[in-house]
Amino acid sequence: MREVHPREILIATIARLLDGVRHVAVGASSPIPAAGAMLLRAQKKRAGAPPVRLSILGSVEHNFFTNGSAELFDCAGQGRIDAFFLGGGQIDGRGNINLVGAGEYPGSTPRWPGSFGSAYLYFVVPRVILFREEHSSRVLVETVDFTSAPGTSEDGVYRTGGPAALLTGKALFSFDKTRPGFTLESLHPGHDLAEVKAATGFGFAHAGSPKQTEAPDRATLDLLRGQIMDELSETYPDFASRLRSETAA
Amino acid sequence: MDLREMARRVEPGMLLALPVDYAGVSMAMTKPLIEHGAGDLRLFCVPTGGLQVDQLIGAGLVRSIETSAVSLGEAGGAPRFNQAIREGTIAIRDATCPAIHAGLMAAQKGNPFQPMRGLIGSDILRFRDDWRVIDNPFADGGDPIVLIPAVKPDIAIFHAPMADRHGNVWIGRRRELAAMAYASAQTLVTVERIVDENLLASEMSAAGTLPSLYVTDVALAPRGAWPYGLWGEYPTDTAEILRYAKAARTPEGFAEYMASSGASSMASSPATSPSRPALEPAQ
């Protein structure tokens, strides 16, 4: 059995980042965030802690909304959603995200799907985790070409939410809205500071010798490879079976 | 009612409201709409668009689109949409999901607008000359908030599991379909089946029913969301959407796909008989 898969580190890190939430929502086609949320839910249940509610958009099994696709936003607007995940074709050093496209708008090339609910959820969900596996200077840019949603807002603008962390395939960053900017928290195993600097289009704060991202312990790994993969395969069968075969190899 | 007959309600330049891929897209209406040929359409995606939107754009029927996103989900970007954006052949108004819902909600209430949090400082707002920012009149000062004007589509088109003989349509928990119908002047619905019982007669079914008051026409179209799935009925045919995504990378490939049998031709068969007899009926 392979020791720890890079994606298992991401899933376990997400579970840690979500610690303390009562209700986390996950967008459609986000298997890693969903797995992280399921892991936290299972850990809390085992510990007898208050339950974690998980809503996966587009899922029947993990979705209790009955008022159509508007309900997620109503729920978030009332402060009933503590955490959400956003990605983006571009993320810049001030936490601005671009889901619309590169180059000059509106003739963006390439054009990406669009902003979805980001221009609202980024403002009203307290703990938004920016998640993008690709860590490159193409994605992590100095300034986004189009702001789907800004990382911070001026004083006086209603804002109860915003970015808490940025998790990529190479590293974990926290976000400081007073600067505003990112701080490197840890490097995933197999990656070093020079590599991460070269692959990041914006400057970030960091320790002289950054920590390594914590790997899941044996109990967490067992839970992840058993119960969590079972739960995940209901919604993301392809992802779950691929991860299973890669961790069994 | 026949799908072709229903498609004739669409006139050039109309504003069409179309649902998100998982809510009940009337894919069965796509071909009849293209054959009918009313162009210059303005699409309003509730709150995002996919295959149907891409096909209407590819067929050259679309002048503008308002949406929070257009994609083919797991099959990636929407090729005809992306090319039209790149070449500037359609106008786009980028939105965000709750702003789409807010526009419909305002229309539903008969209000001129709906206020909405978020958006301030985004380029979405910067490019929307039809939206306004005011200071919250109930605050002591400041507190800017965005106003989204009411959106009143000419026609909403969607697919649902069932209707009864009175024209009531069962939409279950997919309330965005009701929101679309409340806001729109006309609503065209295709359904998997027509049931004999009155859906409003039982409290259990009435709660998930859109009354015929808001429904203009209903047509039978078994597996009418295909290749999308329909909640509670059948799953998405991802292989078919991938096939489309690959074919539609070029205008020629798109035309070939649309002309092929795989894209179906509901319009050439009466709506009362299943158009794809080879497929198993939905359970």
From TrEMBL, chain A:
Keywords: Transferase
GO molecular function: CoA-transferase activity
InterPro entries: CoA_trans_fam_I, NagB/RpiA_transferase-like
Top-level lineage group: Bacteria
SMART domains linked: CoA_trans
Pfam hit, one: CoA_trans
Gene3D superfamilies, sorted: Glutaconate Coenzyme A-transferase (3.40.1080.10)
PANTHER family: ACETATE COA-TRANSFERASE YDIF, CHOLESTEROL RING-CLEAVING HYDROLASE IPDB SUBUNIT
Name of the protein this chain belongs to: Glutaconate CoA-transferase subunit B
Organism: Enterovirga rhinocerotis
Taxonomic lineage of the native organism: Bacteria, Pseudomonadati, Pseudomonadota, Alphaproteobacteria, Hyphomicrobiales
TrEMBL record, chain B:
Region Disordered, annotated ranges: 264-283
Key word Hydrolase present: no
Listed name of the protein: Glutaconate CoA-transferase subunit A
Single GO molecular function: CoA-transferase activity
Xref: InterPro entries: CoA_trans_fam_I, NagB/RpiA_transferase-like
Keyword Ubl conjugation: no
Signal peptide as annotated in the record: none
UniProt-listed Pfam families: CoA_trans
Domain of life: Bacteria
